[in-house]
Amino acid sequence: MILEVAPLTIKPGQCAGFEAAFAQAQAIIARMPGYLGHELQRCLEDEQRYLLLVRWATLEAHTVGFRGSPEYQQWKALLHHFYDPFPTVEHYRSVYSGTPT
Q1: Would you say residue 49 lies in a domain?
Q2: Contact (CB, 8 A) for 56 and 38
Q3: Number of structural domains found in the chain
Q4: CATH at 21
Q5: CB-based contacts of 58, cutoff 8 Å, min separation 6
Q6: pLDDT digits over 11-47, tens only?
Q7: Tell me: the pLDDT tens digits for 32-85?
């Protein structure tokens, strides 16, 4: 499993619009081959900052499959105009994980 991590900074005054657009966009990503799940977290200290976490079966499911698809163009049209600056997306693999005891 690969974890896509995208810290998002939303333009001032546009958080409500971003969240409404994301509600539509999440249906797009959820249909993609190799998609395993996602979370959108909002920062408590800076309400214009969000963290998007997407779980993919493989790196290529995101970088080739999703980003190379027509659906990605819909995703971009819905969301990319909200970002300032444009996010740097990184991918992680698990080294250790745990659960509370």
Answers
A1: yes
A2: no
A3: 1
A4: 3.30.70.100
A5: 2, 34
A6: 999 999 999 999 999 999 999 999 999 999 999 999 9
A7: 999 999 999 999 999 999 999 999 999 999 999 999 999 999 999 999 999 999
pLDDT, residue 43, reads 98
Domain of residue 17 covers: 1-56+84-93
The answer to whether the peptide bond before residue 85 is cis (omega within 30 degrees of 0) is yes
Tokens of 97: 């994980």
CB 52 within 8 A of CB 40: yes
pLDDT, position 99: 82
SS (H, E, C) the chain: CEEEEEEEEECCCCHHHHHHHHHHHHHHHHCCCCEEEEEEEECCCCCCEEEEEEEECCHHHHHHHHCCCHHHHHHHHHHHHHECCCCCCEEEECCCCCCCC
Q: Which amino acid is at 56?
A: W
User: Model pTM greater than 0.90?
Assistant: yes
